[in-house]
Amino acid sequence: MGRRAAWLAVSAALALSPLPVLAQSTPNGDVAAERRSSNEQNGVALMRIVVPDQAGVDRLNDLGIDLAEYSKPVDGGIEVHAVLSPEETRDLRGKGFDVRDAISDQADVAKLRQERAKTLRTLADEARSGDTLTPLRAEWFTSLDGQRFLSVEVKTSDPAATNILTASWNGGAGTPPGSGGTATMSRFTDAGQYMYHRFNTPLAIDVTPTEVTVTSTSGGSVTVPVKKWLGEPRKAPSPHYVSDFVDHYMDPTEVYQRIDALAKEFPGQAAIVKLPYKTNGYRRHAQAQFGSAAASTFYVTSQAYGSEGGNDVTVTLAKPDQASAPLTVSLDQDNVTVDLATNAEGVVTSTAKQVVDALNTEAGKLLSASTYRGNAGDGVVAEAATTRLTDNLHAPASVSRDPFQMRALRIGKTRDGSKPGVFLYCQEHAREWVTPLTCVETAERLLRNYRHDPNTRKLVDDLDIFVLPSVNPDGAHYSLYDFNMQRRNMTDHCGPTESDPAYRNSWGVDLNRNFSVGSVYDGYSGASTSCRSDTYAGPAELSEPESRNEVWLTHQFPNIKFAMNTHSYGGYFMWPPGAYKVPGRELLPRADLGTETFFWSASDHILSTVQNWRGTAIWPGRTGPVPDVLYSAAGNSADEHWYNRGIIGWDFEVGADVWNPATKQFNAVGFQPPFAEGHEEAMEFANGQIGILEVARAYASDKVPPKSKLVITGRDTGATKFTFTIDEPATIYYTLDGSRPTLNSPKLKAAGMREGPEQLTVDKTTEVKWFSVDIAGNVEKNYKPAGKGDGYRRQTVTVGGGR
Ligand SMILES: [Zn+2]
């Protein structure tokens, strides 16, 4: 390939990329005196020459000029291009040729060569590395007795199970990479989708590393600094601060009595709010079952609740002494006697179905009868001695069998709706025995420290706090006294085929699946429509009084801006979205980047307060949006509050795994740990609830607008990348088309799950206009996005050849 052909190739490449012309013709057609050029190339450049006609072209050719294979008719002649040194240019101009400006100069070629070399290097790197590793988080922390732990999260572009990721870390500043230890990472997938790699549990370490390197068998490698998770312990509360008000697991009757007593004792700072929907109550209809084989078995259920007479009903299955007796049912007050039919030999012939029908006809005012789990009931019934029906409930008489009046304890000096509201609610799930203690402890601390502790006084003076200590009182009574693993409320929505007494521990609605946003009825995952499932969503959204009470409270008090839904166990701190649809793992909308950043910064404060009690660190891997760290929970209450009312809906799971230094393992604590452990969990998460109140108060008193900066992050030929930094959690709204930015303009997004802000790319010089809004609604420079003014921020992002 000759010189000319080579230049043609470069020329064609230049035509494709929008490089600027570096020297312009002056209006009179003269060429600007000098153009920039690379010294290395002695100023050789591709120059534009205009000749009057083809004869002029021929003349240039005769002179041996290195012409490009290019010619174009222009006003006054033909334009051709020639590769010329400055001397040749001067010489041609001396001969009367109209040599004009440069198409490009050698600097551009140098740049192209650099670019090409860089691309080749990148391609080689990629060929070598195979996959790209994106670090999400790398943190160390101490927990409980001071044991140090390491937590690392990395995402690979090659999520195949055969790609093994290994983390290795140093042994502190100045030590060689990998000198601290090495561990294989686990591949975290959910709903069939790859999420990221992490350790299943944080790794115990002896020395704090400053750096971790993750490598993959596909060849990827990334090294990141290891940061400290959770801030320094807070200063100790004032010496007068009192805490620790719970000394046993309490049933909801005791819990509610406690908040009633507090309201009475502190009328200046607290009041009871009665919630309008009474629960179904800690009560059941009385039942009895007769028979052993399915075909000959039936069961009866009293019309009255057990506590309202159902437990007094008896049923006797008698065999008459005579042959050919008919089937009869007789009633004596609450006592039902079935005289079974006999044949000519005096043998009983009544089938289960026949007895059921006779009972329903003759004793329907006392009870209803059903064959066993939908069986046809054609087996012959056996005689049975008098059997008393029972509701199978074992709570002491101190637990009322009436519908339960739920109530919230409203704490605040000014309870007129003018202060920002915080809704703390506990025990949606009955078996999570520690959770109501957490709510009670928080309420007591607020009221008993109000007079002497300045920090408490600020919280009570500046906030409107609603404490609902047990959202599921009926189920919780049942869990305490009858079936400890009861999760749901007590209401049986099953039909007769699933309501025999042996199923009595399988009924009820999962209240944290009964809400109306992202529910199973909307197609979201993580709830069931089966009445016996432990995640049964109920017959419809908001079918249960307990759920409706939560919604009512947030409607009634629209000043509520924060909510904390306290569950057990595992040690989690989570926020919306809380649900996705399984095909495609389609999430409810993620919070925008500013809100997400606020959640992370709030978690640092809140989780540091939790840690302050006995050292428990909630893990980074158990902090974040629900589906990123746990699983989808269709129709949960935090999503209800966030998506329907804009209430920041957080979730706690109290009961973090406890590290056993002897076995060097984490042990899960379960729903009902020994009280000594449950007590500690209640104390540390009451700390966390107080931490939430502190975050809420800081939010309420934030009157300082955020300040942002546009930062160029990369320049390439024809493209410039940039992003923004902000001095506090805030959302950036921007425009790239010169228009005035508003709250409808694009928002700066996260680069990906658990990643920082995205980078924006422009391919031409662009005036970026933007503003930021913090979580409290303060707008940068007090700009009015809905107005007409131009008090937004603006900056021109240039695009060029890299200069
Ligand atoms: Zn729960």
Features:
6-stranded mixed β-sheet, alpha+beta, binds zinc ion, disordered N terminus
H/I helix tally? 14
Distance between the termini: 32 Å
* Ligand names: zinc ion
Low-pLDDT ranges: 1-41
Radius of gyration: 38 Å
Structure class:
alpha+beta
Please summarize what this structure is.
With 803 residues, the protein is α+β, with helices and mostly antiparallel strands. The protein is built from 14 helices and 39 strands.
How would you portray this structure in words?
- The protein has 803 residues and is α+β, with helices and mostly antiparallel strands.
- The strands form ten sheets. An eight-stranded mixed beta sheet has the order 15-23-25-24-26-31-27-30, with helices on both faces. Strands 5, 6, 9, 10, 11 and 14 form a six-stranded mixed beta sheet that branches.
- A hairpin with a 7-residue loop joins β16 (285-290) and β17.
- α5 (252-265) runs parallel beside α7 and α10 (545-556) runs parallel beside α13 (637-645).
- Residues 1-41 have low confidence and may be disordered.
- It binds zinc ion.
- Zinc ion (ZN) binds at residues 429, 432, 567.
List the helices and strands and how they pair.
Blueprint: H1 3-16, E1 45-51, H2 54-62, E2 66-74, E3 77-84, H3 86-94, E4 98-104, H4 106-129, E5 133-143, E6 147-156, E7 165-169, E8 181-184, E9 186-190, E10 193-198, E11 203-205, E12 211-216, E13 221-225, E14 227-228, H5 252-265, E15 270-274, E16 285-290, E17 298-305, E18 314-318, E19 328-332, E20 335-339, H6 352-362, E21 367-371, E22 384-388, E23 407-411, E24 421-426, H7 434-448, H8 454-462, E25 464-468, H9 473-481, H10 545-556, E26 560-570, E27 572-575, E28 580-581, E29 586-587, H11 593-614, E30 623-625, H12 626-629, H13 637-645, E31 648-656, E32 658-660, E33 665-667, H14 675-700, E34 708-716, E35 719-726, E36 730-735, E37 760-762, E38 766-774, E39 793-797
Parallel strand pairs: 5-14, 18-20, 24-25, 24-26, 26-31, 27-30
Antiparallel strand pairs: 1-3, 1-4, 2-3, 5-6, 6-10, 6-11, 7-8, 7-12, 9-10, 12-13, 15-23, 16-17, 17-21, 18-22, 19-20, 23-25, 27-31, 28-29, 32-33, 34-35, 35-37, 36-38, 38-39
Zinc ion (ZN) binds next to loops.
